[in-house]
Design brief:
The protein is mostly helical. The protein has a domain at 3-79: Orthogonal Bundle (Arc Repressor Mutant, subunit A), CATH 1.10.10.10. The chain is built from 7 helices and 3 strands; from the N terminus they run H-H-E-H-H-E-E-H-H-H. The chain has helices at 3-15, 18-30, 35-42, 48-58, 77-90, 96-104, 113-119; strands spanning 33-34, 62-67, 70-75. It has a 3-stranded antiparallel beta sheet with strand order 1-3-2. The chain starts with a helix and ends with a helix. It comes from Novosphingobium fuchskuhlense. Keywords: DNA-binding, Transcription, Transcription regulation. Residues 1-95 form the HTH arsR-type domain. GO terms for molecular function: DNA binding; DNA-binding transcription factor activity.
Length: 120
């Protein structure tokens, strides 16, 4: 598999968790924050917060800075560049016309496995 695709897939997998996505959104909106500030902004308590920040740190999606006993987190924008380019390529290039058409599309019906088996 293409190394770029593997790296992109890893970023997407990491962001595919609602708590991690919320952490990234919070850091984007508020800038660099300490763990306690992030906890206050998001309501995500310990140890879950530390666990999710560690995953983001390991994926190099956030960067840290230590000041005395405090650890500050911020988004690593360079880590998101390939994903941003990929997602931008998926966006309609002719603007609102295609986007409006996509928004009018009905979401796929969600059935259970039993319903699927019944149809067979």
């Amino acid at each position: 598999m293409d190394p770029d695709i593997e790296a992109l897939a890893e970023v997407m997998r990491t962001l595919g968790h609602d708590t991690r996505l919320r952490l990234i959104a919070t850091l984007l909106e508020h800038g660099e924050k300490s763990v306690s500030e992030i906890e206050g902004l998001t309501g995500i308590g310990q140890p879950g917060l530390s666990q999710q920040l560690a995953i983001l740190r390991k994926a190099e999606l956030v960067q840290t800075r230590r000041a005395a006993k405090q650890v500050y987190y911020s988004v690593s924008p360079q880590a998101f560049a390939p994903a941003a380019r990929f997602l931008a390529a998926l966006a309609p290039s002719d603007g609102a016309g295609r986007l409006a058409k996509l928004e009018r599309m009905e979401p796929p019906a969600r059935g259970s496995a039993a319903m699927f088996a019944k149809m067979l």
